[in-house]
Design goal:
The chain is mainly alpha-helical. Helix content is 48%, strand content 7%. The protein is built from 3 helices and 2 strands; from the N terminus they run αβαβα. Strands 1-2 form a two-stranded parallel ribbon. α2 links the parallel β1 and β2. The longest helix is centred in the first third of the chain and has 29 residues.
Length: 110
């Protein structure tokens, strides 16, 4: 049985250019998705046990996507605070209620 963990740091060191980081993310995301998927396929081909489960950070969208595409069971966790998770889950309702717009900006409707 092979155990493997894939760690990805999002940096967080501060001082960077936000717009430059967004550009890097747009390029990085599809590349990373393909590389992780290729890596997992290699494990399935070469390891007798294959991959029995993917444990993925909810913030990294490619983990659940890859697991679903490959038919592998998935466990998702959220490493942030409960209040941040509650906010993230509330965003669609805040948009529907007109509190914020699709850019995440507050709508001054008073």
């Amino acid at each position: 049985m092979t155990n493997f963990a894939w760690f990805l740091s999002q940096g967080g060191g501060g001082g960077g250019d936000f717009h430059q980081d967004k550009k890097k993310t747009r390029v990085f995301w599809p590349f990373m998705l393909q590389k992780v998927e290729d890596f997992m396929e290699e494990i399935i081909r070469t390891d007798e046990d294959g991959i029995t489960c993917v444990v993925a950070d909810e913030c990294l969208g490619w983990g659940p996507e890859i697991a679903a595409n490959m038919g592998i069971p998935l466990a998702v966790f959220f490493p942030g605070s409960p209040s941040w998770l509650a906010l993230r889950l509330s965003i669609p309702k805040l948009i529907d209620d007109g509190v914020i717009n699709y850019d995440g900006l507050y709508n001054d409707f008073w």
